[in-house]
Amino acid sequence: ILLMNISIFHHPILKRALPYILLVWTLIILYLTMAPSDTLPDSVIFDYDKLGHLAVFGGWTMFVGLFILVSLEKLYFPMKWIALSGFLFGGLIEILQYVTPFNRSASWADAVANGIGCAFAYFVLRYIQKDMIARNKPESVR
User: ∠ at Cα 116 (114, 120), nearest 5°?
Assistant: First the structure.
């Protein structure tokens, strides 16, 4: 019964690591989306462009949400603002690709894929958030 109350989200290593994971993930996104396309390595991963957008920006949204829930311990933070921030970040990348001369092309389809990834992350984060709130209630309230 005691093991049921233990969650990976309460682990101190995860709590300390999340800010660094988020920073590295953000830097990877900026590199992959802003570097001139002819400098990026050829990879089969890039054959699934829209799925990649979905995963990368959905992952970024997840890391931001987990950072707020776990590292900052803000269990009641509105997850819609985190999903919106992921969508806006993805949109900003598309705008920057349009206005910068780095041989990159902006795409509405990429922006939509970014948004779908953020929406998926939102629903996962809401589930995690509800679970964390339920686990933090005193036994007499449950």
Answer: 120
Return all residues near 109 (Cβ < 8 A) that are at least 6 apart.
Answer: 50
Q: Copy the structure tokens of residue 87.
A: 């969508």
Where residue 49 falls among pLDDT bands split at 50, 70, 90? confident
Q: In sequence order, which residues have a C-beta less than 8 Å from that of residue 123 and are 6 or more positions away?
A: none
Cβ atoms within 10 A of the Cβ of 132, count?
16
pLDDT in tens, 109-141: 999 999 999 999 999 999 999 988 988 876 655
Contact 110, 53 (CB under 8 A): yes
Rounded to an integer, what is the distance from CA 139 to the centroid of its chain? 32
* Calpha distance 1→52 (Å, rounded): 40
Structure-token pair, residue 126: 């809401």
